[in-house]
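hiii so my PI (J.) wants the whole complex modelled not just the main chain, which honestly fair. so below is everything: two entries, each one labled with what it is. i double checked the lines twice but i was tired so who knows lol
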Amino acid sequence: MKKFGKRLLCGLLTVACAATLLTGCGEKKKSTFTVGFDAEYPPYGYMDENGEYTGFDLELAEEVCKLQGWDLVKQPIAWDSKDNELNSGSIDCIWNGFTINGRENDYTWSVPYVDNSQVIVVNDKSGIKDFAGLAGKTVGVQAASAALEVLEGDQKDLTSTFGKLQEFGDYNTAFVELEAGSVDAIAMDIGVAQYQIESRGGGYSILDEHLNAEQYGVGFKLGNEELRNKVNTSLKELKKNGKFDELAEKYGLSDMTCLSE
Amino acid sequence: MSFPVMLSELSEGMLKSVGIFVLTLIFSLPLGLVVAFGRMSKNKIVSGIIGFLISILRGTPLMLQLLVVYFFPYYLFGWSIGGWRFPAIIVGFSINYAAYFAEIYRSGIEAIPKGQHEAAQILGYTKVQTFFRIILPQVIKIILPAITNEIITLVKDTSLAFSLSYMEMFTIAKQIAAANTTFMPFVVSAVFYYVFNFVVAFVMRRMEKRMAYY
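here's the output for the full assembly
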């Protein structure tokens, strides 16, 4: 029994040592900055021509890291698991066209940097011109998205006129469904809508009426103000030195930015 | 994105899918045998517990199990789970597949007539010798087609690793499809899966033929 006890103690010590080593690594890692993003969300975060992850938000994060002397780690995440990933510390922040409105108390937020609207996209052939035309139609919306929140919240009177609200996983599938006629309209962020319509060579329009106006920010784990403040400082500096506007122009988002010095 | 770049990106993802596949087989095939013994144990408590675990593992979605394996160390104990992502995938896949393999092993072991055990005993074989020299070779022969079924399913199940944000082939296909607003990557990934499974089925058939010695 004594022998067994000794062995057990030895084993425990080994585990403890290993744990110390691991946490030691964790502390050294402070100079990395892990951004969680949905890699199916152009133009904010996506895979470019060469198979590299890029986008407005990721390039912005890259610039922030340069200023802070951090190494950027781009971690694509399953959007439904974003809270688990953030709370468990697998990622340092969610930086991905991330809507603040309606989530104010769920995350520690950076300064807002993009003015966004949730809009409705329709197929030109459908002849839908305004919200009234959506009555009885099937409207698609991404699961767990800000657009869905709006449709179930502030705009629920409008939603009740729809024939059906169809949730889907990604916009690519949704657009194919729109093209094939199985959905009549899609609710989404205006920046994403513009990218999708442009890269598909037209044939779709954004309704003039918008569902709401909202803002994007970087979401940190609730209470992580230290990291948030550092990122805020760098964001403002990027606005001052013109780098922020340069990136906005590159991704066609100049009309939508709202970051002030 | 040009076609060659797409192919090379998807191939890179395929390597990761194959990694999950190979590691899962390495761990779950032996683990399944251990679990099968537990399931057939004469000890009611042991066989009861194992039976319960198998029913949980087979009765809940693999995707859910992966999420549980990955996030629970944090939610239960507050441990940092940095670097746990890939191990969690392998652990999740391995225990899930071990449960299925265990039942396949059991079906094979129980198909062997009791008379063989008795004959071996009379000839002076120990229980361990009886199992490894007489029973197991026949069991493998019986269960190969069922194992092939599971292995082919495993190839396709590797795509579930996306729920833990692991960049295996199908996740990459979805990302390329999103950025380029096309369905082409899905066609390519279908071909990748099919070719891989074709090879798996071919290898398993060869094994079955080699086993057909009587």
